[in-house]
Write a structure and sequence with these properties.
By secondary structure, this protein is of the alpha/beta class. The chain has 7 helices and 12 strands. An 8-stranded mixed beta sheet has the order 2-1-3-8-5-9-7-6. The protein has a two-stranded antiparallel ribbon with strand order 4-10. Helix 2 packs across helix 5.
Length: 209
């Protein structure tokens, strides 16, 4: 289903986390998703691995002649697949304007940021937001990121990207088409469950009319 809208689908994963890959494979099979894994780069810290791995995926894509890439993480779980077609209605117009699309995010209101804007029944323009488990990129965004993000800077990639969303035409789907499964996070070295965060963020974006 998502392959219809992207030239390439890449899933960031640590090869030793066979448990997560097994669950992702099983889940992705339900929606007939075609994808390839990118093995997380071994670095001094999980944070460095996270930053450099996302950067490397996009840098590799920037060397291709493709236009759109969907980058996922192996704890991504899809939902609301019945509205995928509606979300991507008028595909050419959609990508002509949009450089980034989040299929779910931590978008709870932050006083220091601009409020999201209504675009359609299924889309909101966002000016801040976190998470990197399911983002679609147009190559214009990829080229900008590759030329401007410095993975050695220690700034978390999702935070850096959030700060630049006002410069992009960045969208988020409503309802969310992807969330993160509760699991042990190697990045944070603890069990994480973002269920309440996604629920609150989704309700917030739905309220933007």
């Amino acid at each position: 289903m998502f392959n219809k809208y992207y030239d390439k689908v890449v899933v960031l994963s640590q090869p030793e986390r066979k448990d997560r890959r097994k669950e992702f494979d099983k889940h992705a099979d339900l929606i007939n998703l075609r994808y390839e894994y990118f093995d997380a780069l071994p670095m001094d810290t999980p944070r460095d691995s996270f930053n450099h791995s996302h950067y490397e995926i996009l840098k590799n894509f920037s060397k291709s002649d493709l236009d759109r890439i969907l980058v996922l993480e192996d704890d991504c779980r899809f939902r609301n697949m019945n509205v995928v077609e509606q979300v991507h209605t008028h595909e050419d117009e959609f990508w002509l304007n949009s450089m980034l699309i989040y299929y779910g995010m931590n978008a709870r209101p932050y006083p220091e940021h601009k409020e999201p804007q209504y675009v359609s029944n299924y889309l909101r323009r966002v000016f801040c937001g976190y998470t990197t488990h399911a983002i679609g990129y147009h190559r214009a965004a990829v080229d900008y990121i590759v030329h401007n993000y410095q993975p050695n800077s220690k700034i978390m990639y999702d935070a850096w990207l959030s700060d630049r969303l006002p410069d992009f035409y960045a969208l988020c789907t409503v309802p969310f088409l992807a969330v993160q499964a509760p699991s042990h996070s190697d990045l944070w070295n603890r069990n994480v469950d973002y269920t309440d965060t996604f629920k609150a963020s989704e309700e917030y974006l739905k309220s933007i009319q």
